[in-house]
Write a structure and sequence with these properties.
This protein is of the alpha+beta class. It has seven helices and seven strands, in the order αββββαββαααβαα. The chain is elongated.
């Protein structure tokens, strides 16, 4: 299973932008093939690590996560370790009124990352505990002290109820669709998004980042 999406050259993001998006939008979709050959999807938060690559002088992305033991997804990962992970970033409608002429149509702007991954299950309780602490550190660092205070018996019970995994990214695509190929509308579009809701404001921020790179 390979992660592929339609990706025109003008919307192609780089590795640094992909890492930023994956950390800002931690809720991912993990897609595997089930026992009947159909896609099976779990939505879950993932922690991104960048590690030295064992195969080259560069680094590799590794995604850490877990599912409930009752969720059959981990059995599909054990049987067929190759899977797909997708991240959807901020997205919003774009009105054609941002253009200086009327011969335009609406569109939708968005950011997304698609990863092909190779899964390794993590069953050792200590390794699972370390993995959980990394997820805690992403979202609520003070909870780590509360987790430690709950006692070993409680921790072992909770850890037994999950299956953790490492997802090694073997292929990555990053799409930043902000109509970069239509510079005549960029100022009006950024102003429109800056005055909108949370998603629109996030897109305006990404537009500003792209401008700083030019």
């Amino acid at each position: 299973m390979l992660a592929t999406m339609y990706l025109p050259k003008q919307f192609e993001g780089d590795r640094t932008q992909a890492a930023q998006l994956m950390r800002e939008q931690a809720l991912a979709s993990l897609v595997s093939v089930d026992a009947e050959g159909l896609p099976f999807v779990t939505h879950l938060p993932l922690h991104l690590e960048e590690r030295p690559s064992p195969e080259s002088a560069s680094t590799e992305f590794v995604l850490l996560g877990h599912v409930a033991r009752a969720n059959p997804h981990w059995t599909y990962l054990a049987a067929r370790p190759q899977a797909v992970v997708t991240f959807l970033g901020p997205h919003a409608y774009m009105s054609p009124k941002v253009y200086p002429d009327l011969a335009r149509v609406p569109t939708w702007n968005y950011l997304a990352v698609h990863c092909t991954v190779q899964a390794t299950l993590v069953e050792d309780p200590l390794a699972k505990d370390r993995l959980l602490k990394k997820l805690i550190g992403d979202h609520e660092p003070p909870y780590a002290e509360q987790w430690r205070g709950l006692g070993e018996d409680f921790a072992h019970k909770m850890l037994a109820g999950i299956v953790a995994f490492e997802l090694h990214v073997t292929r990555l695509q990053c799409k930043i669709k902000l109509n970069q190929h239509r510079p005549e509308a960029s100022a009006a579009m950024k102003a429109l998004y800056a005055g909108g809701g949370e998603n629109e404001q996030a897109l305006a921020s990404w537009m500003a980042q792209l401008e700083c790179r030019e």
